[in-house]
Model the fold of this input.
Amino acid sequence: MGLVNIRELLAFPQGDNSSDTLIGGIHWNLTTLNHWNYTYYSNGTFSNGSLCFLLFEPYTPHLLQNGTFLNSTSCYSPIKPIATRASVGLAFACLFGLSIVFTFINLRKHGRMFLPVEKRFRPVGRRWQWYWMLMVAAFAIISGITGVDVDRYYLPELPIVLSNFFWFLMLPTTLAAVWESIRHWGSWQERQMVDPNPFALRQDDRRSRFELLIPLVFYLFVWLNFFMVVPRSWSPIELQRDPDQTRLRAEPTATDVRFKAGAFLLFCGWITIVVSLQHSIKHYKPRNRGVFNRAAGLIRYIPLKFILSLGLSLVMIGYEAACAFDFEISPLKLHPNLGIVYGLGWTPIALIFLVYEISGYFDPNEDRELLRQRRIRGVEADQEIGITKKPHWWSRLHSDNRQLNVHDQIAQNVATIGGGRATTKNLERSIEMGNMPASRRPNSVTPTRNTGAIQVAANLLFPNTNQNVELQEPFTDTPVSGTGRGRSPGNAGRPATRSETRTDVSNRSDSSNSGITLGAQPQQIRSMLDV
Done:
């Protein structure tokens, strides 16, 4: 008997008697079949609405009197060979499985950090694109593998539901990957703008509020699409076991208003992506004047990968909307037009992956690119002020590279800390300010050290000193011997007594006392430079 899926209700063939029926050369107990409400169908199956068994060889069962089938095979068993749908689905599953390797490579490349974390630019923002792509790849692998049993099952059941369930999950997640790539591109442009000047852009203006709210709008459309399409009763999709059942049960469910609304919401999400891209170009790229110049600038500033991904994602959304109106091209149908299903439903997603994987391979890490831009700005700033930095090998060729011993290291440390130019400057400053050793009290008779050095310094400061004045007691106003001011010639030969010295000192004024210290005329101090 041919393995066909077209099912028609047939009457039991006549057997040897009224309680016997002959099907495929095998006698069956008609009374038992009628008792358990079994029905014979043209596709070679027995079914009572709960159980279904194959009757043809080599799956022919044995019926007992109590209604039990021995060695039976369910109608929902994978007994057919792999067909075109399963082969193409496996090929796409392998491609998406291979893409996971490259997605992890790009995730590691672009997700690594070489700069401190900034509050305005979180590192998770540049990783979300690759996270969504990993989810899409996982859904594609599951959908492609479960699509194998769609062809192999004798009658459609759970595999066609699982395959389409995960395919419908691929659509919003793919659009989310496109959204994250474009949103983060705008954030990257902002980061390059504020890196030289953190105050170039305000954080409380209309632009910042727009960038805060537009992700919420996009994900609102994505989640509405999810709730419109996914949470539903998928059992009618399995009911495609004959043309009438397909027309009455499966087709109305596959083209209901919820699928149409889901496609429209996904298109609204696509419009949100385009608006976000236009916003980023408007605020972070040079502006052009005129309608035509602005249009040309908009196209020129959009990276090629975004032009391709936006176009491919629009094709994907358009196909989902077409499936909601035409059941013949829908993957929900058991035998659709496979060229349209894989050409418009799977190929755009695979091409989006290809574009992002290639661009991720060539695009640099953002932190490293930012460091490169900072080095360029530093070189330009040095050139403006005339600084030329020597290359790294210069210090190796022109410096003392010998190994220092302990003595040299200590000497180097002393010279660096306290024995270098700083100490020399302190000594020069002390000499300029005239910090001389403090003198003792005038009535002190204790001899002072370094008297000769002090005398020499005094002669240098006051060259008009009386050369005939003999050596006197240090830091006193009365000479030891010789003729002095206020002394009589007769007393020149004898030393002055303590009372005479005290009397002479008391008769002098303070001003003359300071000027006659070395026998010179009273000196008038004009400024601190004379000291």
Observations:
- The two ends are 131 Å apart (CA to CA).
- The CA atoms of residues 109 and 429 lie 59 Å apart.
- The mean pLDDT is 81.
